[in-house]
Amino acid sequence: MKAALKQQIQECINKWTEEDIYAISFYIYYAADNPTHPVLKIGYNTESNCKKQLEEPTAWGPASSIEAKWNYAFWLHNEELVFGYDGETKRIVEAWLDGLGYRRLQDSELWGEHSFDEDVLSLYEDDFGKVTCAFIRTVAEVAKGFQEAGFLKDVFHKEIPIIIHDLEYSEFQECSIKVLDLNMEVNGSILPVDFIRFCNGEV
Questions:
Q1: Which of 27, 29, 68, 116 could hold 53 in an S-S bridge, CB 3.0 to 4.6 Å?
Q2: How far is CA 57 from CA 20, 22, 51, 75, 167, in A?
Q3: Cβ atoms of residues 121 and 105 within 8 Å
Q4: Among candidates 36, 13, 37, 11, which has minimal Cα distance to 26?
Q5: What is the per-residue pLDDT for 168?
Q6: Quick one: angle between helices 125-149 and 179-187, nearest 10?
Q7: How far apart are CA 121 and CA 37, in angstroms?
Q8: SS3 content of the chain, % helix, strand, coil (to 5)
Q9: pLDDT tens for each residue of 40-89
Q10: Strand spans (E) along the chain
């Protein structure tokens, strides 16, 4: 999986032409709320979008320039690459999890005719943290490899952080990996101080 993920991300990023990209989002979530069906969605945000968020305020808009820049709620939410949701990339992730010996819950098993089946979900509870941790760590290894090799600097002619996250910036609860710690590990000195302050609730 790692090789396929690396290749597809590289091919995707090499096509980007926006000159004011300042951060890349590696957003991890679960398809159909299934903790054994992890998905990586890749996008980015731009300085011009930050400016737009601040110039066109709404009741739900950012309270500061730092929030506009680092709160994912105000990003572009572009889906440049979705890895693991369906098709070939889903099969790649499933084969990888099978190889690790983790049980997988099919989305169709989890959802009954009209509702989410908590009883079925509980049968796989022991595997949630293992799946999440393995997936996040593999994504982090790929991201860290890009930064260490200077891939993004070669493409954009500047240092750009890769932000690995879910909807919150505290921790991936299933495996207790703190989002800030993970991103510091992946990006090192490339990670902006304002992002660190934002995660720590200092702004």
A1: 68
A2: 21, 21, 10, 14, 22
A3: yes
A4: 13
A5: 83
A6: 30
A7: 12
A8: 50, 15, 30
A9: 999 999 999 999 999 987 778 898 999 999 999 999 999 999 999 999 99
A10: 21-30, 38-46, 81-83, 162-165, 171-172, 177-178
